[in-house]
Design a protein that fits this description.
By secondary structure, this protein is an alpha+beta fold. The chain has two domains: about 90 residues; about 70 residues, Nucleotide Exchange Factor Grpe, Chain A, domain 2. Helix content is about 50%, strand content about 15%. The chain has three helices and seven strands; from the N terminus they run H-H-E-E-E-E-E-E-H-E. The strands form two sheets. Strands 3-6-2-7 form a four-stranded mixed β-sheet, with no helix packed on it. Helix 1 packs antiparallel against helix 2. The radius of gyration is 30 Å and the shape is elongated. It starts with a helix and ends with a strand.
Length: about 180
């Protein structure tokens, strides 16, 4: 009888060890899958961000084309490539952040300057560099100039012309832009 009890206890211990080993292996498998998924996401995000830089360069180049030259075959081809790249990014969940005239949001925007403008205070007055999201996660924030308010823009319009104003004496009268 005693031998039978010992064998049953040993059997139970082996079953427990087996179940613990199976659970550990399952946890390891899940952890490996999650790590692989994280690596793939990181690589995709890095590639998407680099393509966003290329998109910005396409946009800058196309903005320099005069209206009369827009019908040129070369310009049309470049425009089609830019649209194709935009479509590829869109399929991967990459979207440009719309910022102009919107309330400044530090989660989406990086303020580089405060400027007087026709916009109310704390609204984005100018986009300096486009920003992008990927599946609702910010890849790159929009670099912006934030409006310091209409009152400063109106005040600048009502000031007398430069020849009527006293000079600062250093010959470098200019607009002050507050850089952060």
């Amino acid at each position: 009888m005693k031998r039978m009890a010992e064998l049953e206890q040993e059997n139970q211990e082996l079953k427990d060890k087996y179940l613990r080993s199976m659970a550990e292996f399952e946890n390891y498998r899940r952890r490996s899958i999650a790590e692989k998924s994280d690596w793939i996401k990181l690589a995709t995000q890095k590639l998407a961000l680099e393509i966003c830089d290329v998109m910005d360069n396409f946009e800058r180049a196309l903005n320099q084309v005069e209206e009369a030259a827009r019908e040129d075959a070369f310009v049309k081809g470049v425009t089609q490539i830019e649209q194709q790249l935009r479509g590829v990014l869109g399929k991967e969940g990459v979207c440009r952040i719309d910022a102009l005239g919107k309330e400044f949001d530090p989660a989406l925007h990086e303020a580089l300057a405060h400027i007087p403008s026709e916009y109310e205070a704390n609204l984005v007055a100018a986009v300096i560099q486009n920003g992008y999201t990927m599946h609702d996660k910010v890849l790159r924030p929009v670099r912006v100039a934030v409006s310091s308010g209409k009152h400063e823009a109106n005040q600048a319009e009502t000031e007398p012309p430069a020849e009527d104003k006293p000079s600062s004496g250093n010959g470098s009268d200019s607009i002050n832009i507050e850089i952060k």
